[in-house]
Amino acid sequence: MATPGIEQLFEFQRLPKDGFLLLLFLLYAPVGLCLLLLRLFIGVHVFLVSCALPDSLVRRFIVRGMWSVLGVFVKQNDPRLRDRNVKVYICNHVTQFDHNIINLLTSCNTPMLEGSPGFVCWARGFMEFGLLSSRSEMAESLKRYCSMEGSLPLLLYPEEETTNGRMGLLKFSSWPFSVSDSVQPVALFVKRPFIPANIEESSWILELLWTLFIPFTVYQVRWLPTVSRQDGNSSQEFGNEVQELLAMELGVVSTQITRADKAEHLKRKRHIAPRTINSNQSLGARPRSISLGFMAGNSMVEDVRISGMVQQVKEVLPHVPLSVIKRDLVQTNCVDTTITNLLEGAEEVNSNSSGVLSGAAIQTSSLNAVGDTASAPALKPNAKSFGKYPGDRHMSLQDRKEALYEYARRRYIEKHGLNRQTDNTQ
């Protein structure tokens, strides 16, 4: 399966794009408004019942039945697969109510990673740990919690951000896997008609209203076998192993896109549209819906193509930020050329770029300084002067290409452990 671009991992449009589905949605809208008002009244009772009853199997059965009246249906593959001795559940993150769904099946706690503690945090079903300055402090606090006798299991999201759950997983953070040496992966599937299960940058209140508006939402939970850390594996290696298992179960791709990459992508999307509109107004252009729609479609196709090329470069140079890779790809429109620029220092290769890719040169120098220096081949520096003869210039380019291919080959061998297999064969 091809690696998806960052644009394919998230949903940004609420209403269906298909004309027939949009027509059905508009016809359903009056019924949905009636359901919304009725379910709001029932939802208050569901909240009061869940607060009044103690945590038990009876409470989960009653609340689960009341949630089905709200249009939320929860399924699980086999309850006997759930390990009652494990202290940490690892789940993919699709909606802002995933922890509430898992709580309908088993008792567990989900720590509040962001936001101020208080009534809203408690009402949403999160566990308060106070304001912690870093994820390492959070991991230490959760480790102490797991060591307490009688403590409930923890439900953690290593992605730390939601995705659409259909294309790929964000790169797992390492801190959840430092809490315990044994975790149980939980695969979560979400389906609903007409609209996506979650829209980026939408508040949890708005998502709750849409959930009550839509006729139904189906959550399917699959319990996977417990995974234990192997001797000598770091927390990140342990997380990568669990990420691959979850990706296979979900039928998606395990990507190298991080939470920070998503935040940067959303920030860029917020600023591109206002700048485009302002530039059109400054030129005195009259807005036309057909032209803008055509331009938006072309830009979307271009973004998807560039995002695919960005992922190819990211696999070879995982430490270089996506923004630096995309900035160079927009200029070069070639994966090999961009990798060469990032490895050799883009400012020396393109003297006409006026320092646009200086960040790439800095990232490249830091990449060569960390860890991979011993394994990467020595790249020849750029020529200080332009060759007089075509043969000289061709040889210089050929040397850089050979160094680039050797570097990529060694990274691929080390990543997949092929060097061990080669040694055994010999």
From TrEMBL:
Species in which this protein is naturally found: Acipenser oxyrinchus oxyrinchus
PROSITE patterns: CUE (PS51140)
Gene3D superfamilies assigned: DNA helicase RuvA subunit, C-terminal domain
Residues annotated as domain CUE: 305-347
GO terms of biological process kind: ERAD pathway
Coiled-coil region(s): none
PANTHER family: ANCIENT UBIQUITOUS PROTEIN (PTHR15486), LIPID DROPLET-REGULATING VLDL ASSEMBLY FACTOR AUP1 (PTHR15486:SF96)
Protein name in UniProt: Lipid droplet-regulating VLDL assembly factor AUP1
TM segment ranges: 20-42
Family per record: Belongs to the AUP1 family.
Membrane topology: Peripheral membrane protein
Top-rank taxon, per record: Eukaryota
GO CC annotations on file: endoplasmic reticulum membrane; lipid droplet
Subcellular location: Endoplasmic reticulum membrane; Lipid droplet
Main location group: endoplasmic reticulum
A Gene Ontology molecular function term of the record: ubiquitin binding
Keywords attached to this entry: Endoplasmic reticulum, Lipid droplet, Membrane, Transmembrane, Transmembrane helix
Secretion signal span: none
